[in-house]
Amino acid sequence: MSIKYQKETGIFTLHTKHTTYQMQVDNLGTLLHLYYGEKIADEDVSFLIIRNDRGFSPNPGDRMEERDYSLDFLPQEYAGIGTGDFRIPAISPVNGDGSLAFSGRYKRHKIYDGPYELSGLPKLRDQKKESQTLEITLEDEATGLMVELLYGVFEEADVITRAVKVLNQGKEEIKLSKVMSCTLDFLESDYDLIHFGGHHVQEHEYHRQPVSFGCQSFGSVRGYSSHQHNPSGILCKTNASEEEGDCYGFVFVYSGNFLCEVEKNQFSQMRMNLGIHPQQFEWRLLPGESFTAPQVVLSYSETGLSRLTNNFHNIFRTNLCESKYMNQVRPVLLNSWEAVYLDFDEKKILEIARSSKELGTELFVMDDGWFVNRNDDSHGLGDWELDEKKLPHGLCWLSEQIHQMGLLFGIWIEPEMVSQGTKLYKEHPDWVIQIPGRNPSMGRAQMVLDLSRKEVRDYLVEKMNGVIREAHADYVKWDANRSITDIYSQALPGMKQGEVFHRYMLGLYDLMDRIILANPDVLFEGCSGGGGRFDAGMLYYQPQIWGSDDTDAIARLKIQYGLSYLYPSQTIGSHVSVCPNHQTGRMTPLHTRAVTAMHGTFGFELDPSDLSEEEKKQCKEYAREYKEYAPVMVEGDYYRLTNPYENHLFTGWMHVTKDKQKAWVSLVMTDVEGNAPISYLKLRGLDKDGMYRVDGLNLVCSGTVLMKMGIPITWELKEYEAVRYCLTRIDKE
User: Fold this and answer.
1) pTM of the model
2) Where are the alpha helices (DSSP H) in 343-391?
3) Can you list the alpha helix ranges (DSSP code H) found in 533-588?
4) How many CB atoms sit inside 10 A of residue 427's CB?
5) CA 632 → CA 200, 551, 635, 662, distances in Å?
6) Alpha carbons 379 and 401: distance in angstroms, whole number
7) pLDDT at 715
């Protein structure tokens, strides 16, 4: 049993392979958080909770005589509001009498095999029922508001999930203005917060700062998880490194507005909350109604960031995305976007597809611009009618021609958007998210369809499935190119407008259920102007997401570094593009662009006619090398060898098979110094007692030497040049 309950002490203990999570129902019915960390026995660690009479920390009304009991300093599993805990709350209701308080006391619990249900929301899958679930119900007796805390334990994966259901069992309507999916309390606060964010074409940057007194937060109110902040983070000891130190990771399985907040309080305790952002959120619950908050995935490592990374990589590979492609080597593709943008015709598309074969590609993708009035990015979205001037023989014919070349065929769509001049907008202006009486904000000259409306989703399901069928598509790129503003649904009454952001996301998931899951043989790739919606909610549906619209190899090193902490390499769309790069103007060697792109799904974003014959031969060799290397990336463990924010000279990373028999090491020089000292790239993840042949260096070394001493980086490598080494264990051949 991975979940145990001791009735005598009120203690719940959750065990994974290497970790333990413990909580206790105290004599007041408060659910206290006792411990989360390295695995311990089924011992009672409640002695860690010290109660003192602290000034200005009030005592509950039914325990006034216990002046050393205050919610202001007790670590809790789900923090209420208005009853003596002045830290950041997990829930904030407006009760029927107008009061703003919630005090949840233990009501009941249930333990069972298999996963809990989250209707309409993505979550970790468990078809084999290898997990266990704990449900604990807290009740506010004064209002009848109940909170079901859901814990899922994936024992072998060292993962615990959290989610919340809120039920109104009272007699009056209750409004929820904040519902976090997870609270995690710590008795100490000597931690750093790591999170990832930036902006369009510079997403997923690594940020690490000490947790300081007061509250730190990051999140999104843009309608999507956003380019600016990823819905994930890590709390680690200040001395934690890749191989040492306590590290707690958390990932929100949600694609909309979110908030992560971390508070260090007056007593140097720490609290982390993660959930839907409360800005522009309000959910009304009539008596008998419920609200379900999305899932958070937690994992812990006592041996540094590398193990934490591989915990998340492993669970996301096996239990998140249902696509058959998740753990397959993906086809090498060529995407037409940076080759021709919107300016193409049938002849040009076929010419690019035909010449892409010379690069070793297996899949040709026709990006944006194939439908009526789509000669710039200001028109055409919504009707999804083929532009017969560009493609006079039709999608079916075009697909057939490309398939006859021996290539798979892919196509670009942006279902969630509409342009104002389209037939769809003229016939259904009420289908658009906009506030009546106001001039709407525009993004990329397009507006957002109201996916909270079933009739809108029905229209899109018919249109998109029709395009996929007509195109005989093997691959679909699903894009979304603006944030959501002017939030308002004309299908809802005014008092329910605070529900629109979340209803939109539920509608999007329903849409993906009916399009993506209805086409299991199609490889879908997510995109939102690059990495604007790179999150676990999207990975539930799509096995890969375009990492960034910035295809510059050097810029991509930091972008992919940030993503690597929590998301597997095979989920990151990454391509070789032309130089000078279209986003940065930087010139980098073709080999460097290929090495960087091999961190992810690998493909080309260029017109082959712009390449020399020698470059085409090189590209074909890179495609071949990728197919050889990809199985290690798809199935193996990942290790960051340098931090590009601390090491400005070079960036290194590697993938190692689970049995440690083979590894690929990649290195890119990002700067050079004259007369520089010799640096050494120290490897990770090898068997220290094994002997490895390092191809390309005529070198045989033990794992110990390669990890402790490393591979020398010589002056022969110039700025922006790259090398890759294949390591093969030879003592067990």
Assistant:
1) 0.97
2) 346-356
3) 536-539, 553-564
4) 10
5) 30, 23, 5, 8
6) 28
7) 81
